[in-house]
């Protein structure tokens, strides 16, 4: 290399290589041994660069000019082509330039013979701040020069050399570095990775209680921070595991990442961008599988460095978090990547206060420093205090005030202050996330073991299938062969050729259960979106892995997969051995799908029973048993508290000894003190179809009433900006119609409670003199008139 600046850097480069010291350039890998912080691989390089820049900027003015002269063209005459001053007495040993005597301005250049003053004449009247800025670029040029010589990957080396020349040119011209060419300017995708991950947290975990939801938010911050400092695989490595077209696109993104994100971490002369803020789903698709494996492996290797209270979070919950995120990254119809993403409204979303999170929630340095402390280990992840979140919020208090308690309540409501108090007494703070130990309770749910193993990364679930249009992935083909073997062994009556044909048929997909890299079970299915159902063809788990809840957890994953794809009905033919399993999974012989929809579409099997299952999109099936467990704990605590309030102990009943055959329940001493009330004298319709017809008729009359207009649809935020901050459980006639259509109202009480909720919400939000308040009063009287006419309550 003929560049004088490059020649001046050679002695330092040789010393670095001979001593084995890690350079401060951008070539160090994210998980290399030279890093002090496994989560922030660029930190040590950045510290070394900053330290060197501080030393150089502390030089006297003359020494600074000498250093800049190395990168400054000679201006003695127009004919001189020297582009950098060369010291006639170069340092004999590396790093001696820090102690060497400062050269005078009259010192001649070893290359062109002109004085140092001729090279730095343009810096004579330049401010000290500008001189320091240029010196910072000099240090970055030195680091990049070493990175060029140390880097073995050709693509990465070319980028380093381009940036080296760019900064070299900027020093010469005293300009700001700007990356030019066909790479474009950041951001490169919208929505970006950060927004997509935050959307994922809202989409998947908005139904959780605030504390559990905050845990998921902290995991998302940790993942984003790791991604911002992680070293991506080179295009050469990526090319070995993918197709040519994808490798070409990845090379462009990799070059952008080096120029705009990775190199600027330790070379701050270049403008820096966060990886998660300028890239989106396309890059994440390319890197997620490898990055996930590297991250989890790094955590397992360094688990002894983790703080005990953080170990469970990182080793147990983080793998589950990444598995669920993987489904949304590679899923065809995931809503989290839509530009207008909003949290889907559902009954489950009303379990606690909602937070609309924005990228500002995690991009600030204060929030990130809370996520990972200054410790060198990932064990310092903080899931404790909640950082204030920027964005739109429902500002609902954890515990209700006295004024809240005095508000009119719908009959049957449990005071929220009591529920909050009970929640604080439940000893398992992570109950909504599943058990933390291997010691399961005697009454544990069937899928509890499987859920625990999935969170720990022991088992994985993947929807796979064969393709005739794309080059098949070797791993997927191996899994398909494994599935064919499992189905053949577990379903001996089924011809092997038939199993093979369906498993490898591109129209069929299989939800595979993977343990230790091998297939141990799966469900083969075919989706009929136009008909609104899916046929389950094969379902099996290998014999030595049964009775562990894998079958239940497998079916729950399949249900959630179909809810995301808006298919809410399963059909399958079950033999006599499988009927019991399918019944436990919610299947029955009562088929909800009209016969015209499936006749001619599904395969008929002799000696098998057709069974169906209707899915409820508001149920999080993979966490359903945990939610039920939590609800049972709350009810149990409420009962215990109620029992504790009843201090008086009554003697047993002695009347039966005297020949009395029966007594009224209300005559039992103390029965009323327990909260028992006589059953209402209204008629409870037991026939579902009769109840449906009666409630439908009542609701039609209510909707047709002239005072029903304010309650026809959900309240719009634009019309009442503070409504959802005051009203915790909104209700309207449109929602009631939808619930009625889906057969939600299995009793008259549920129907009446929703109508009463509409009236109560209106009275709570509006003043008594308002038109809305008056409409609610009139409509309430009309509603109860119709209820009495139908004989559902006593007249």
TrEMBL record:
GO terms for molecular function: histone H3K9 acetyltransferase activity. This is Histone acetyltransferase. The active site is at residue 535. Belongs to the acetyltransferase family. GCN5 subfamily. It catalyses: L-lysyl-[histone] + acetyl-CoA = N(6)-acetyl-L-lysyl-[histone] + CoA + H(+); L-lysyl-[protein] + acetyl-CoA = N(6)-acetyl-L-lysyl-[protein] + CoA + H(+). It is an enzyme of class 2 (transferase). Residues 1-55 are annotated as: Disordered. Residues 463-616 form the N-acetyltransferase domain. It is found in: Cytoplasm, Cytoskeleton, Microtubule organizing center, Centrosome; Nucleus. It comes from the Eukaryota. The keyword Nucleotide-binding does not apply. GO terms for biological process: bone morphogenesis; epigenetic regulation of gene expression; limb development; positive regulation of transcription by RNA polymerase II; regulation of bone development; regulation of cartilage development. Residues 703-773 form the Bromo domain. Keywords: Acyltransferase, Bromodomain, Cytoplasm, Cytoskeleton, Nucleus, Transcription, Transcription regulation, Transferase. One of its GO terms (cellular component) is ATAC complex. Its EC number is 2.3.1.48. Acetyl-CoA binds at residues 539-541, 546-552, 577-580. Residues 18-30 have a biased composition (Low complexity).
């Amino acid at each position: 290399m003929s560049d004088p600046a490059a020649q001046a850097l050679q002695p330092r480069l040789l010393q670095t290589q001979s001593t084995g010291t890690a350079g401060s350039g951008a070539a160090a890998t994210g998980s290399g041994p030279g890093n002090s912080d496994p989560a922030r691989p660029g930190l040590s390089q950045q510290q070394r660069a900053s330290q060197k820049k501080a030393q150089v900027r502390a030089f006297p003015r003359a020494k600074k000019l000498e250093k800049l002269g190395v990168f400054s063209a000679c201006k003695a005459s127009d004919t001189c082509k020297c582009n950098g001053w060369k010291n006639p007495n170069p340092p004999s040993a590396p790093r001696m330039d820090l102690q060497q005597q400062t050269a005078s301005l009259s010192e001649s250049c070893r290359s062109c013979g002109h004085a140092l003053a001729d090279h730095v004449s343009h810096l004579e009247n330049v401010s000290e701040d500008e001189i320091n800025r240029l010196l910072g670029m000099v240090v970055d040029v030195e680091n990049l020069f070493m990175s060029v010589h140390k880097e073995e990957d050709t693509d990465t080396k070319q980028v380093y050399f381009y940036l080296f020349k760019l900064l070299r040119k900027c020093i010469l011209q005293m300009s700001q570095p700007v990356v030019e060419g066909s790479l474009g300017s950041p951001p490169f995708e919208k929505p970006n990775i950060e927004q997509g991950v935050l959307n994922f947290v809202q989409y998947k975990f908005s139904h959780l209680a605030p504390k559990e939801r905050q845990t998921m938010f902290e995991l998302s911050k940790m993942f984003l921070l790791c991604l911002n400092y992680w070293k991506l695989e080179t295009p050469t490595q990526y090319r070995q595991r993918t197709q040519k077209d994808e490798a070409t696109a990845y090379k462009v993104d990799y070059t952008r990442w080096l120029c705009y994100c990775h190199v600027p971490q330790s070379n701050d002369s270049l403008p820096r961008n966060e990886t998660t803020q300028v890239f989106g789903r396309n890059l994440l698709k390319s890197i997620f599988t490898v990055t996930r494996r590297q991250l989890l492996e790094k955590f397992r290797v360094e688990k002894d460095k983790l703080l005990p209270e953080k170990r469970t979070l990182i080793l147990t919950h983080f793998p589950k978090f990444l598995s669920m995120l993987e489904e949304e990254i590679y899923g065809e119809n995931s809503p989290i990547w839509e530009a207008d993403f909003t949290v889907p409204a559902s009954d489950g979303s009303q379990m606690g206060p909602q937070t609309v999170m924005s990228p500002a929630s995690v991009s600030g340095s204060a929030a990130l420093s809370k996520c990972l402390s200054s410790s060198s280990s990932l064990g310092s992840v903080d899931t404790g205090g909640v950082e204030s979140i920027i964005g739109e919020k429902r500002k609902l208090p954890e515990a209700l005030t006295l004024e809240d308690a005095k508000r009119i309540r719908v009959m049957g409501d449990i005071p929220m202050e009591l529920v909050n108090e009970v929640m604080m007494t439940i000893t398992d703070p992570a109950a909504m996330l599943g058990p933390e130990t291997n010691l399961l309770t005697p009454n544990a749910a069937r899928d509890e073991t499987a859920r625990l193993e999935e969170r720990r990364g022991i088992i994985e679930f993947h929807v796979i299938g064969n393709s005739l249009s794309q080059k098949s992935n070797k791993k997927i083909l191996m899994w398909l062969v494994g599935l064919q073997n499992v189905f053949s062994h577990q379903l001996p009556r089924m011809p092997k050729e038939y199993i093979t044909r369906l498993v490898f048929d591109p129209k069929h997909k299989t939800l595979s259960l993977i343990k230790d890299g091998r297939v141990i079970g799966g469900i083969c299915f075919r989706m009929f979106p136009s008909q609104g159902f899916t046929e389950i063809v094969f379902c099996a788990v290998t014999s030595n892995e049964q009775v562990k809840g894998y079958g239940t957890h497998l079916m729950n994953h399949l249900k959630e997969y179909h809810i995301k794809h808006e298919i809410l009905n399963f059909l399958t033919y079950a033999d006599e051995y499988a009927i019991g399993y399918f019944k436990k999974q919610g299947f029955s012989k009562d088929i909800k799908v009209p016969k015209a929809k499936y006749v001619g579409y599904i395969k008929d099997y002799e000696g098998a029973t057709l069974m169906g299952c209707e899915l409820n999109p508001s149920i999080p099936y993979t966490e359903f048993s945990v939610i039920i467990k939590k609800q049972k704990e709350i009810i149990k605590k409420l009962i215990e508290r109620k029992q504790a309030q009843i201090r008086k102990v009554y003697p047993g009943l002695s009347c039966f000894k005297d020949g009395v055959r029966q007594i009224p329940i209300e005559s039992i001493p103390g029965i009323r003190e327990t909260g028992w009330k006589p059953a209402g004298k209204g008629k409870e319709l037991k026939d579902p179809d009769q109840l449906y017809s009666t409630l439908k008729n009542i609701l039609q009359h209510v909707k047709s009433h002239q005072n029903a207009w304010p309650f026809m649809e959900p309240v719009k935020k634009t019309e009442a900006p503070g409504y959802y901050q005051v009203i915790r459980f909104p209700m309207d006639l449109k929602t009631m119609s939808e619930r009625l259509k889906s057969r939600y109202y299995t009793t008259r009480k549920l129907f009446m409670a929703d109508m009463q909720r509409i009236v109560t919400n209106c009275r709570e939000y509006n003043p008594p003199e308002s038109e809305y308040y008056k409409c609610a009063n009139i409509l309430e009287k009309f509603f109860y008139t119709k209820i009495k006419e139908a004989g559902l309550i006593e007249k």
